[in-house]
Amino acid sequence: MNLQSSVILRGRFVPMLACLTNWTQRHWKWMVFLMWVAAMVCFLVMRWPAIHWLTLNDTDDNIRYLQVRDWLAGQGWYDLRQYRLDPPAGFDIHWSRLVDLPLAGLMLFFRAFVEQGQADRLACGIAPLLPLLPLMLGLGFIGRRLAGGNGWILAALAPFAAQMGISMFMPMRVDHHGWQLALAVLMLAGLVDRNWLRGGVVAGLSSALSIAIGMEMIVYLAAGGALIALRWVFKDGAGRRMLPYALTLGGSVSILFLLFASYANRQMLCDALSPIWVAIFAAVGAGMTLLALLPLRSWPSRLGAGIVVGAAVAAFAWLNWPQCLSGAYQISPELDKLWLSNIREAKPITAQARNMVVPLMAIPLAGLAGLIWGLWDARRDSDKCWAWATVGLMMLFSTSLLFWQLRAGPAAQLLAIPAAAWAAHRMIQVIFTGRPVARILGLAGAAILAVAAFATPLYPQLNRLWASTTGEVAKPRRAVVAARHKIINKANARCRSLPALAALDQLPAATIFTMVDLGPRLIATTHHSALAGPYHRNGKTILDVHHGFDGSPENFRAIAARHHATYLLICPGFPEGTVYQARSPQGFYAELIRGEVPTWLKPVPLRSGVDLPYTLYRIDYSAAGGEKVPQQR
């Protein structure tokens, strides 16, 4: 191609590229929508086996699915009691029906075209993908605010690189965490919105909806509210954001309480939207409204007034409900020791394995580098600098919570995306428009960011490459631990599988004594009942299960009789069982795993087309106790 042809092509290409760039800037929301549709199609195809087999791996997903199914079968709107856990009384689930609505709507829609089982599977596959759209829109909005132009593209696409964050939006993840994460991002978008009225309304409404769903994100929402108040202190006129935020937050929380609070949550409780939190958020809204309307002209006067009002609201909450400020769950020390402290996501990141920590922290670390660069870049623009400070403080706060509990991981990854995506956007600009040296540095930086984006699949490969290069041999203890984890994971998956549990429906409906973490899956996939699920309001029964498996066989039989359990289901290798074995090697569960079975436990044969991974016993309360019959496994 001669020089003249090259110039002609370039002359045609550059205007076309500029036109396309301008179009995507103007219609970025529609572009995000198309990206979301494409992502939905890809994920549904990738996860179709899980949809087909109703693979609801998390206990919360199983209870959410069952909660919606029971509601559609006639259970009351405000009755969120799960009667098949610890029957006949059951116990109250502390959630609301807000997240039930999209799942129920999809179930009813598909039931008009296919049989009920298939309709419910399709609904469980699609429902978790719905909050992915507001998440992508929120991140795209923040990306435009920080980078301008087409800075939204990488920010909207980056969640697909956040392995822990995006896992909350995968098909069959029907619990509420995806919605709450999307609402937290929308709240952040409201905080940095240049339109103060719209930003205040979005931040207030997002916070109220998240609170109505559950209290898990309340510390993030409180941090967002604090940033709005801080902006009001140091920016004259910022009351134009704080006033709509306060009115929207206080009003929406009250309305959502009336619409969605269950019968149980109308009591004075700390773990859900209850009259306690309605009163507290009403006080917060009233206090911020008063501050926004006061004619305070200097930042010291605003700071002083804010301290006085904030102290008054804090005193109101502390004097009336001090228990809610010290811990929403209000569980006993014994329950915390035996149960909660053994939950992996309740432990800090310092207690986790390196193969989890490194991929998890890759995006927050990239976001930290982007934050430092972004603050320096915006140092002469006070408005942009405040937007960066807002994004940065929320990112640092969410990342710091990882040192309290691992459950902060998804939020830490997603809230770090705006800063990391901005850095990637700037790197691309440098590569295409910078000087030669800057281009080299840009390529190096882009490579580092690419490693951070693909840390989850790359880390195991790099580990193997390092071992093969250095000749490093895995330590025996490490190899044993890895093999043990593989066995546990396999047992966990098999015991929860639909074909295995379906065999239990050969028996008349009864109460089955089994592990706490298996209870929700058991009642979601069979017509049987279980004793407990991993929920703090079920705390007394959780302790009974632990005492039954940790203690003597006769102690177990007495506990099982008290709960009217007909059968005992044991799944060797199930993760929860390893806790009982390690904690009580002479306890009832450890004896069963060793094959020491009391004579009053009668094996129940089941017909199945698959090799069943569990053993089912009928509990004979009339038989004499004490004697054990060794059994081969």
Descriptive notes:
64% of the residues lie in helices and 4% in strands. It contains 29 helices and 9 strands. It has helices spanning 3-26, 28-46, 48-52, 59-72, 100-111, 116-126, 132-147, 152-157, 163-166, 177-192, 196-213, 218-234, 239-260, 275-293, 299-320, 322-326, 333-338, 354-377, 382-400, 409-433, 436-453, 455-470, 476-496, 498-502, 519-525, 539-550, 553-562, 575-583, 588-593; strands spanning 81-82, 91-92, 511-513, 529-530, 567-570, 596-598, 601-603, 615-619, 628-630. Strand 3 (511-513), helix 25 and strand 4 (529-530) form a beta-alpha-beta unit. The longest helix has 25 residues, at 409-433. 42% of the residues are buried.
Quickly count the helices. Answer: 29
Distance linking N and C termini: 76 Å
Q: Describe the global form.
A: globular
The helix content is 55-70%
Rg computed from alpha carbons, rounded to a whole number of angstroms: 27 Å
The counted number of beta strands is: 9
Taken as a percent bin, the fraction of beta residues is: under 5%
Largest sheet: 5 strands, mixed
Q: Major sheet: order of its strands?
A: 4-3-5-8-7
Q: What class do helices, strands and sheet pairing give?
A: mainly alpha
Q: Which segments are poorly predicted (pLDDT under 50) over 5 or more consecutive residues?
A: 479-483
Mean pLDDT: 91
